[in-house]
Amino acid sequence: MLGLPRKSVRICHVDLLHEERELYDRMEEEAKKVVKNYLNDGSVTRNYSTVLSIILRLRQICTDVALCPHEIKSLLPADNVIGMISFKF
What does the radius of gyration of the chain's CA atoms come to, in whole angstroms? Predict the structure, then answer.
């Protein structure tokens, strides 16, 4: 049996700048639509890596907007019915 350390959870509340908040809110809105479509289609498990990528981008925005690409459309699937999104600074 592998001995793993105890799980620790840290919650960090972050105050975002205005442009960071706008980007985060727009990204979160699109992410919710994408995940909702996957849930409705029953395809969440087939698109698991896309969902994880979306969560990663949201986390990156909270850490530093520079970590998140200027064009976030790459994290959404090409055949997404919502369409591609692009954020410019």
Answer: 15
- Residue found by looking up tokens 């850490």 in the block: 63
What's the predicted TM-score (pTM) here?
A: 0.63
At residue 37's C-alpha, the angle toward residues 33 and 38, to 5°, is 120
pLDDT tens, position by position, 12-58: 888 888 888 888 888 899 889 999 999 999 998 999 998 898 888 88
DSSP letter for 82, please.
Answer: T
Tokens representing residue 58 in the block: 């949201």
Q: Provide the greatest CA pair distance for the chain.
A: 50
Query: Given phi > 0 = left and psi -120 to 50 = alpha, else beta, which region is 2?
Result: beta
Query: CA 22 to CA 9: how far, in whole Å?
Result: 27
CA distance 84 to 82: 7
